[in-house]
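Lab manual, section 2.4: Encoding a predicted structure.

Procedure: take the sequence of the chain (445 residues), apply the prediction step described in section 2.3, and record the output as structure tokens. A sample record is shown.
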Amino acid sequence: MSFNLLFVLLFLPSASILGWLLLHFIVSRRTSTYMIVQALLLSLFLFFTADSIYSIPGIPSDILVYSHLFTVFSGTCCIPIIWLYFDRLRYGHKFKVRHFLWLIIPVSLTLMGVSLTDTVGTSNLAPFLTELYSDGAQILEHYKGTALWHYYVWCHTIFRVTVVIELLLAVVYLVIYVVKENVRLINFHKYFTQDEPIRVIELQIYVLVLPAVFTLVKVLFSKQFLDTHLWLSIVLNSVISVSIFFFNRNAWFSARKTITRTQEKHVMMYNYHPSIKGPIKEIMVEELLDDVDQEFLLRLQDKVSERIKSVAVTTPKDMNAIKDILFSSSGNPWDDSLLTRFQTIMLNEQLFLKPSLSLQDIAERLHTNKTYISKLVNNTYNMSFPEFLNTMRIGYSQQYMRSHPLAKQEEIARACGFLSASSFNNIFRKITGMTPKEWVLKSPK
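Recorded output:
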């Protein structure tokens, strides 16, 4: 492999992190986790850059020594900052002084390393690091008891032990969170295949587990081993760079609790801090209205006016209801043809009689996504999709009972799309206020 390609691969994670530092500065300053993400990126940038510089042959002695100190400091900072990020996602509270007490460890290690560097001198330390890099830890027998040996203990052994302890504590935290918050791989599967919402913190866990393992491998293996097995270094840097991409892309949604794949396509619309949610949404609506024609504005005005009249503005909850009406009305991305096609498959084809019919099934039939179908039903019929589906089935069941007076409830339930008679009875009572038997007795012959 040519030196130029090797050089690019060495600095691939650093280049990726630098790009994300700039992107977050441009688009993510309103998110609640902006500062903690920037601190993490800066720490990772220092670690991977210093680690890559340390691998370049013929590097000047001063740069070699100080890059190693940067590795010690930034390497012990990365994992605590990651878990501060998860803490902010999970609880949303402001950080206090006690949240940063862990800084004592990396600062202490670095200060001791600086002190030992000053004692030994860079001119003596650089050849030692170069020899250690090329020949491995077996050279320590020649330096035992010297300042160089103490430097190795502090900046190599204790550094690696610290990283392992931090990682073990992080694993304990992760296991507790997974158990308490019901984190399941099926959630990620539904998010990826069915566009189901997933918690941002849960998505970030999936993204970070793999690079955390690979980064640990990079920290614990010796430089000599990684240079001998060059393919491993290439794989490590490639996986870490891909994971950095997905982590930072997901970090754009730190203002939200959950996210869907559809919403990820409109990242800028969800990039706001909760404290300025109202003004940002107003800007979003204004931008939407700038792109519509007069006919749409007139229909929107009628729709909003009709719905606001039905809501009494007496409590904050009522105000929220009006806001929901306004935003749901102004955000309709469909046209009349979608409603027509929806009504055709539901009424003419009686698709509502299909057991376990889902929004995803409808969306696939209409070549759209389930978010649009859900909003279409909400805005057109003023009910959720399950309520709409059950209403259609109960209406059909009434016709069925008139035309089949001797049919048993199990037969009626199956014919109308319900999975069981008990489910049919419960929903029938909820919608009509009476049981099917009571309705048959009271209905006109």
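Check your result against the sample. The CA atoms of residues 65 and 126 lie 6 Å apart.
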